[in-house]
Amino acid sequence: MKKMANVFIATCVSGLSDAVRKILPSTSITSINRINKDAGPGITHEEVAAIEKHADILLADVPVIQAVAHSAQKLKWAASTWAGVEGLVKFIKDTKTPSFTVTRMGGAFNTLMCEYVLANILARERHVLELAKQQEAATWDKVPYMKYRSLSELTVCILGLGEIGTAVASLCGKLGMKVIGVTRNPVADDRKCPEVTQYSLVTDLSEVLAVSDYVVSILPSTPQSRGLLSADMFSHCKNKVCYTGDMFSHCKNKKTVFINIGRGDVVDEESIVKAINNGWLGGAVLDVFDQEPLPPTSRLWSLPGVIVTPHLAGPSTANQ
After folding, report:
1. Domain boundaries, the chain
2. Which pTM was predicted?
3. Which sequence ranges form a coiled-coil region, renumbered to this chain (predicted)?
4. What distance in Å separates the CA atoms of residue 316 and residue 318, rounded to the nearest whole number?
């Protein structure tokens, strides 16, 4: 009889072990609750030792996989609960390639991150925050908010057309937005997303920013992407030209809004502050930061036009 694999689950995601047990009721599963901490695996030395000695399969947050990468005795497969792989890639490059297969979470992030982007675009275009403040003041005045743009009038630039970026681009395109996809290398015709109106290279980023109402970064953290969006690059958003339909109808002085759901080190805080204060950006929606948690002293918390969320655009519950 084939021996049953020992599965270990070590994560901050509440209820993940129970969800897996429902799917695999006959599988031997050891559940470890990881403490979400900035440094270290977030589990005890005894729990690390148990994984090293007994685990055949490990479903875990990246810091746990790093902790056992070169000491696991039986491990055949480690599945990360995170979408990002840069932490593991850097760890492997700095040490050595592990003897087991490593995979990342895929697919589950697409819909929720699409919803995050769409929710923020709609909220800004329909003046949701301003109307909420008006409600708090018990004021009835619709005149300032009667003018808004429909989704079909918007041009959205997507930086990073991986799995998640393509899903965001597809949704935006299906809702009528003009979508410009920016990639580092040319994309073959058979791999292009049909909802992407225009493909551009990162070398043309300044021209793309100048015609975009929204710039959505879903870029990973790589040597090529870190610091890509400097304040000087954001200056191209100042005099935005907007295309409506098939003709160049008019120039709008509506500033571009930057949405970041990729990695925080694509742009530094000072560049965002400078871009907002100089009028290059009309606002920003930030879910990721170079330093997390974002320090209370950060100017981003109170910067006009900036929405700060605590890295929650992707799934954070077991069911998700």
Report:
1. 6-103, 108-308
2. 0.85
3. none
4. 7
